[in-house]
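Appendix B. Chain record.
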Amino acid sequence: MSLAQALRAMSLFADGNRYVNEITEFSPPKIALQTEDYRGGGMDAPIELETGMEKLEASFKVSRFDKDLLRHFGLAPGKQITVSVRGAYQDDGKVIPVVHNMTGTWKEIDQGTAKSGSLAEISISISMKRYTLTIDGDEAIHVDIEALTRRINGEDVLSDVARIIG
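Structure tokens predicted for this chain:
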């Protein structure tokens, strides 16, 4: 059993363009449930009831100004960009592929601080409508907000809800 995994390398693909040597950092979306506390009359303490998911957002940094990457900010409503971040994690000599596929819109572009002699550092945040996490070829998490789909290890935990509301 291994003790840890190390990210050996990663790449970014945005709208069909490849940014292997430009991506310097990636913050995947936080996967979190929204809950509300409920305490009925016969309960000694409140319990949390799930009411959905938190907003899906991610961010990444690139080390160059690229008009093809930056032009996706402020797209017309309904227009989205597809982004994939692929990582190669090493675990006791075995390389494990981890893929984050995201569809959404640029929420923010932070151009950082410009300083003579320094590399560019552009931060981009994406707000997602769809997200899929694949680990070693297996889909671990798939969320499609508009389609009311949330698959966790292959099981759609919202399928009954989606069927009932049509």
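Further analysis of this model is presented in Appendix C.
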